[in-house]
Amino acid sequence: MSPQALQIPSACTLLCGDDAISMENARTTKIAQLTAAYPGLAILRFDPAVQKLGQFLDQMMTVSLFAEPRAFVLRHAESLDAKESAALATALDYPLSDAWLFIESTDIPGAAAKPAKTTKTAKPKAIAWPNLFKLRMQEQPARYSITEFIKPRDYEMAPWVVDRARQFLSRQISPADAAHLVDTVGPEPVSLFSELQKIDLILPAGDPITKKIIDAVCEAAREITPFELAESLGKKDSERTMVILDGLFRQNFYAPTCIAALFRHFFALLRIRSYADSHKAEMKAYLEAVGNFSKKHISDEIGLAIGVAAGILTETQRNRVYPAIIKSGIVSATRNFSASSLISILEMLYEFDIQTKRGQLDPNRSSMELLCYKILRSKEIEATYFKEQ
Fold first, then answer.
1. Contact 14/130 with Cβ under 8 angstroms?
2. Rounded to 10 degrees, what is the CA torsion of 303, 309, 313, 318?
3. Is-contact 17 106, C-beta < 8 A?
4. Using CB atoms within 10 A of its CB, is residue 108 exposed (0-12), middle (13-18) or buried (19+)?
5. What is the enclosing helix (H) or strand (E) of 82?
6. Nearest to 101 by CA among 11, 206, 210, 229
7. Tens of pLDDT, residues 21-44
């Protein structure tokens, strides 16, 4: 097949954004397209520890002696100083007869360049590469191209996992299991894709990725935090609580940090219950709006008020309402406890903390299990304004 019949990237390609995994996979795909068209393709990467940028650009602009097709890769263009950025911008206009240039930058498309003050650890940046490439594309659309990779928001990571598993690993994963992977590993794309690759090595070809294999591969590899223990206790999930305790005691368990996390969580639950008692109409409207996209503005507005009342958010943190209030399920967890139960739990935590610090109680696995048991057996209530419709 002739090169003309294959999909060939533009001479100058910019890959930009903060989704490093998608960016790397896109670069690999584009270079694979070139390699398919030109089997003898040489791939040359800029390494600032080995050569200066000027040497790299000179090499790119010099015609190969044997007309050898070459792909030049320059990563982290956002770290170039003003002089280096100007040199690269000038080199972009040089005709490349046998070469292709791939530039990667973590610049967010649409953001203006802000020259920074020169320090010992930072260089001044003078060019926003997405903006420059968009201008060049207007003049020479065949020569320049830009592909943007913006990291999804936390609540959009499950669809991202489904897409990456299918596209790069040829595996299926349900949205529910993808959401479980995000909850287990966290929302960072690099960590998520790393765990997907581990799972891919273990599973037989063609098998889907399920919750069972996610728990088997990912649960033991990551660090468990005291905040997860607080969340599981708030939801009265006894099975999950025991799993988290196992994880905490596999690590360097430190009682004061753990008790502080529990106290903060249950104090927030108490403040939410106090808010609910004095804002029954708002709480009912919030519960009806959660999960209803057409009422998202209602859940966001009331969720922010709940977060502020609980001491979890400030009035300017509207963008944190979904992960901190809605997704966490902290409002629903409040229905598991009466105000008196929450006060009793806070008193138990206070006594446990004092006794351990005075040396009167050993914060070992047994004493922590007993504390968790007392919290899980707290009296449950279901107020009328918390009833599910």
1. yes
2. 30
3. yes
4. middle
5. helix 82-91
6. 11
7. 888 888 998 999 888 888 888 899
